[in-house]
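User: Fold this, then the next.

Assistant: Folding the first:
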Amino acid sequence: MSVPVTTSSSGPSPTVIKGELHCALTGKPISPEHAYWAPPLITTRQLITTFVQTLFTNPGALGEVLLGELPNVPYDPAVCQELGNRRTAEQLKLLVFLLMIAAVLIVPMMLIVW
């Protein structure tokens, strides 16, 4: 016995979530109708430790780890501003860290050349 399968060209159907969700930032319960869905907040420490661990354990997966798309998580709409501020702060921390690494690598080379 076979079951007919229909496919639509309009794209995948949206996922329906029943029940209660919790905000990924505050942990506060929210309803699925009012949830704001966005990628998870990744801290600079999480990014650096994941990069180093993957670099030493499985360097071939580094591209997937850094460039792979993460599934969206629910946030309370009331914390959108706080989420944006936290993302900006984490980006600033990462920028400062990368500039420090660049300075540690470039300054000794410049001193040797001059």
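Now the next one, as you asked:
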Amino acid sequence: MIVFLSILSGLVVLNVLLLIFSVNGVKAKNEKPVQHLSPNAVPKLFAQDFKNGEFKKAV
């Protein structure tokens, strides 16, 4: 029984350590600098933007 509890507690400690390191890694990724768009930036145009406003009957 002692062997089981020692292995279980070791795995719990390992799990906690991995959780702490993964949370710290996520925080580092989220702290990216914000890129601001220039005032004269050209917006992306999609094919939907070129369609006229009239619709045809489907049936």
